[in-house]
Amino acid sequence: MYVMGADGSNPQRLGPPDGVSPRWSPDGSQIVFVKNKDVLSYLYIMNADGTQVRVVATNPVANIESPAWSPDGSQIAFLSQKQFNDPIEVDLIGKDGKNQRSLTAGFLAVFGGLSWSPDGQKILFSMRGDGKSLQGALQLYTVNADGSDLHRLETACPYCYDADWGH
Predict the structure, then answer these.
(1) pTM of the predicted protein model
(2) I need a labelling partner for 69 at 20 to 30 A (CA). Which of 32, 35, 38, 95 fits?
């Protein structure tokens, strides 16, 4: 991971050499990223200057993707697959590494990037069909940040993937 001027000048490497999927915190002071080690994934946070690299999700999992900060910077949503044959779920964890929980337990393949509503109350993501099988087109869903009210949006979007809520 590197940070540089908007014109490409002054590139500086940040954090470990194998960090991926970096995302800036809303206030720009921290970066969340994923690091894969020994076929498992870990979620990390570091200061924006690359210092104080620390693991957030202490239980390694088979796969972590698409970390996304809540608008107030207190929580991070991410896609998580506990074991390689398990469903992919939307998880939420405090930036302090506490209160990790799944928001979509019991559903199958969740896909795409995650996007928080501007008020931090909902998370937007894609899921195949009704989430109970691997059949059907990708659909857009929202779920409340407390895990309640999983809701499919009425869209004609067979290739919905990596949607963004907008601001």
Answers:
(1) 0.87
(2) 38
